[in-house]
Amino acid sequence: MTEINVLRHCWLMLRARLVALHDDQRGITTLEAVLWIGGLAVLAIASVAMITGKVNQATNNIPTGP
What we know:
Blueprint: H1 2-23, H2 26-60
């Protein structure tokens, strides 16, 4: 009978740990931060590319001689 109690206790402890791991939300915060930072990096690169394109277009429109 005591073996069954030990097994039941181990099962309940394992189940409690699995539930605690499942309810842990720290990973979502990290993932969310990585996604935000990646999105902002993409926006920054796109902004630099657009500004560079406009500057190059403006320099090509400058008359340089006869």
